[in-house]
Design a protein that fits this description.
The protein contains eight helices and eight strands; from the N terminus they run αββββαααβαβαββαα. The protein is of the alpha/beta class. α3 crosses α4. It is globular, with a radius of gyration of 19 Å. The two termini are about 30 Å apart.
Length: about 210
Amino acid sequence: SGSGKPSVLRAIAGLLMPADGHVAVDGEAWLDTRLGVRFSPQQRSVGLVFQDYALFPHLDALETVAIAMRDGSAEDKRARARALLERVNLDGLESRRPDALSGGQRQRVALARALARDPRVLLMDEPFSAVDQVTRDRLKRELAGLRRTLNIPIVLVTHDIEEAVTLADRIAVLHRGRLMMTGTPEDVRLRPATATVARLMGQTNLFEG
């Protein structure tokens, strides 16, 4: 807690403008403070899933997803929104508002809305923290399956070590605002760069020599 994880997501999305730094997606610089490049949030193609989902209470699932789309007729947007809801296993629940959906279902609506923008990067801020363990395990499996079909990078913030190890290709360990280590799950877990990284990854067999 307090290491700056949401700040990293906000910097990528353009909601936070660092005084110094560089953000690039697929070779295109969205932020380069040395060159004076600062894309606004509207100029960045980002899908963002908030920790509390941030769904409009007066819109049903279909309307929530369709409203995020940039181009197309109303009918085209509804058709694409329906396809996205089916993709996240919500077919048949298009007309339900957030108060008629479970926590896991609301999370799926938020994910479908993020994908509706055809993003070049998907950002997820502790997306499973508000649901129970059974639902969390199911959502993780669904996200792992969906990830294989998405040809975009996904940045997922989590406190859960097992979640990171299960879902990630690479893990970045943050502590007190500093990047301590990046690497594959195997590297970070079995070959930690420092004792601090080892402790953060749950290792207890630390010996001084």
